[in-house]
Amino acid sequence: MATEGPAMRRIQVAEHPRLLKLKEMFNSKFGSSPKFYVRAPGRVNIIGEHIDYCGYSVLPMAVEQDMLIAVEPVKTNTLQLGNTNPLYPDFSTSSNNIQIDKTKPLWHNYFLCGFKGIQEHFGLSDLTGMNCLVDGNIPPSSGLSSSSALVCCAGLVTLTALGMNLSKVELAEICAKSERYIGTEGGGMDQSISFLAEEGTAKLIEFSPLRATDVKLPSGAVFVIANSCVEMNKAATSHFNIRVMECRLAAKLLAKHKGLQWNKVLRLEEVQAQLGISLEEMLSVTEDALHSDPYSPEEICMCLGISLDELRTQILSQNTRDVPIFKLYQRAKHVYSEAARVLQFKKICEEAPDNVVQQLGELMNQSHRSCRDMYECSCPELDQLVDICRKFGAQGSRLTGAGWGGCTVSIVPVDKLPGFLANVQEAFYQGSDASFAPEKQSLFATKPGGGALVFLEA
C-alpha cells in the first residue's frame, strides 16, 4: 500500500463556491486571508459494526460530505477556532497548553484532539498559533463520523502548518489514538477511511498493521443513507464504552477458558489468533465458555480470580466502573458473526455472481438483526427506518455507525432508486407521526468519495 502523505492540490478558490464563501467568512472574522484549506470526509460503514475496536476488519467508504477548515498560521501562540455554524461558539486557547475536557464533548475538543496528537507525536513544546474557520456538512451525531472527520482534519491542518510530513497510515493511527483524549475507546475505522479513501471504491480496512484494500462495489446498485433524526453523541454517554468493555471482558473470559494468558488479552480477535481457529469455531467456543445470562462484576471477578478493585482500576474505563451487569455472550456472538459477514461481503463483491445485490443485501440484513438483538445498539426509530427501506425496494438495510440513533445504509438496485427515495421520504419523514426538523431530514444516495486533502490557492 502507498505510504505517501495526503495529496496537496492547487486550486482557483473563486471556482469553488463553498471554498469562496469560507474564504470570505474567514476574511470578515479574522481580517486576513487563509493560507491553505484542509478537507477530511465523513464515512458510511457498509458492514462491520462495532468490531474495529475488537481487532477485526471493517468495510467502509468515504462519503462526499466532509469537514473543511480554512487556516492561517500566526506568529503568536494563540489557537483561534471559529465555526461557520452559529450553534458552535468560537474558542480560543494557548497552543502550548491544550486541555481537553472529557466531561463535555464540545465541538472544539475534537479539533484539539487532532492538534494535540500531532504535537505529541513530534514531541513539540513551542507550537505556532493558528486562525482556523471550520465548515462541516456532515450531519452531526448521525453515525457518519463527523467528529472523527474533524479530528483528522485538525491533525492534517497542524501537520501542514508545521511544514512536516507523515504518511496517510501514520496520520490515521495518530488521529485514532488522539481521539481517545475525548474519552471514547474507539477503534480506528473512521480515521483510517478518512485518510485512505479513494474515489470509486470502498475499502476493507484491516488493523495491526493498518492496511486498506480496494473493494469494488456492484455497478447495479447504489448505497442510500437515511438519517433517523435521533442524535447520538458517543462521547456524551457511556453506551459505547460499555460495549467496548463487554468485548474486552468477553475476550478475557474466553482466553481464561482456553488456558491462554488472559491478563495480556484485550481484544476478541487476539483470542482467535492465539487459538488459530476460524470465526465459526470461535462462535462454538463462545457457546461453550460463556452463558447467555448477564454477568455481574462479582461473577467476572470470580471467573478471573481477581478483586473488584482490580477489575475497576485495571480493566474497566472510567465511565464503566459502576455498571451493574455485562452481557458478554451476546457481544462476543455479534463480533465473531459480524467479522465473518465482512469477509463474506468482500468475497461476494470479488466473485460478482448475477444475484450479488441480493446476497449482499441479506448480509446487511443479518448485520442489522445482530446489532439490534445481540449488541443492542439500535433504537425504535432505526428499526422503523430499516423496515421502511426494505419495504420500498432496498435489498438490504442496516444501522451504520455506533447506533442508538444516527443513520441507516441501504443497498438499492439502480432502477428502483427514484421510487425508493420518494417513498421513504413520504413514509418516514412525512408520515402521520413524523415531526422532524427539516435540517435533520437527510436521505441521499452516495458513491465512494476520496480521502483527506490539502488545498492551496493557485
Automatic annotation (TrEMBL):
PANTHER family: GALACTOKINASE-RELATED, MEVALONATE KINASE/GALACTOKINASE. The lineage of its organism: Eukaryota, Metazoa, Chordata, Craniata, Vertebrata. GO terms for biological process: galactose metabolic process. It is an enzyme of class 2 (transferase). Keywords: ATP-binding, Kinase, Nucleotide-binding, Phosphoprotein, Transferase. This is N-acetylgalactosamine kinase. It catalyses: N-acetyl-alpha-D-galactosamine + ATP = N-acetyl-alpha-D-galactosamine 1-phosphate + ADP + H(+). Its EC number is 2.7.1.157.
